[in-house]
Amino acid sequence: MSRIIKICGLRTIDRALAAATAGADLIGLVFAPSRRRVTVAEAQAIAAAVRTLPPPRPLIVGLFVNEPAHVIAEIARTVGLEAIQLSGDEPADFSIPIELPLIKAIRMTGDPTEEAWLARIAATKPATGNRLPTMTALVDAHIAGVYGGTGQQADWQRAAHLARRVPTLLAGGLTPANVAQAIAVVNPLGVDVSSGVERDGQKDPELMAAFVRAVRMSDAVAECGAERCCTE
Ligand SMILES: O=C(O)c1ccccc1NCC(=O)[C@H](O)[C@H](O)COP(=O)(O)O
């Protein structure tokens, strides 16, 4: 099994290409207030550069917080986004007038809106022939007043429960050093990282490559059932 790897918060063409070279499946561009925020023009340039890569290349995910649906759709068309992540307090009947896979951040706060989102995700038929499901939950850490990219770990035990219920990307404080353990505990469809592959506030090519290597190694271990088989 090859888990989906999302590297979030790319801000420049060279680091986005480095994420692709490392082997990311999804590249996240942040359109919300954040030190990682990109303008639409910057996002267009990054997306255009990534689209020149031969397949398999990463899909471009646009990340929004409490943005009106028509604004999201407009940015998605302008940039050529290939998936949308909602990381705010959007209601569970939120509908965007463009057909793209949707990732919804869930912080396991116990909020009824989150439960309603999970029910919607669980009820959505997975699309065929596309590695990213039509709807996916992204389990993240809960830090009051912050919508993501905190570097704080999510509750892995609760995330494991959730991952059995809906397609789940595990996020929150993952690093090259802890991602294999996180996968072993949670068994998610994929993993997401931002702070854990940064050095001095920038995405670091070596850390991104180390993160992907750690995930692919744990994929290989899962495939053969024992680490011994992969290291001999
Ligand atoms: O990354 C941001 O700066 C950000 C800002 C506002 C809303 C969401 C944001 N990121 C969402 C992500 O998908 C991050 O990758 C996720 O929260 C994990 O971040 P980290 O714990 O830093 O790895």
UniProtKB/TrEMBL annotation:
Domain N-(5'phosphoribosyl) anthranilate isomerase (PRAI): 5-213
Family assignment from sequence similarity: Belongs to the TrpF family.
Pathway: Amino-acid biosynthesis; L-tryptophan biosynthesis; L-tryptophan from chorismate: step 3/5
One Pfam family named in its UniProt record: PRAI
Swiss-Prot/TrEMBL keywords: Amino-acid biosynthesis, Aromatic amino acid biosynthesis, Isomerase, Tryptophan biosynthesis
Its EC number(s): 5.3.1.24
GO molecular function, one term: phosphoribosylanthranilate isomerase activity
Protein name as annotated: N-(5'-phosphoribosyl)anthranilate isomerase
HAMAP family listed in its UniProt record: PRAI
Superkingdom, natural source: Bacteria
Annotated catalysed reactions: N-(5-phospho-beta-D-ribosyl)anthranilate = 1-(2-carboxyphenylamino)-1-deoxy-D-ribulose 5-phosphate
One annotated GO biological process: L-tryptophan biosynthetic process
Source lineage: Bacteria, Bacillati, Chloroflexota, Chloroflexia, Chloroflexales
Gene name of the record: trpF
PANTHER family associated with the record: N-(5'-PHOSPHORIBOSYL)ANTHRANILATE ISOMERASE (PTHR42894)
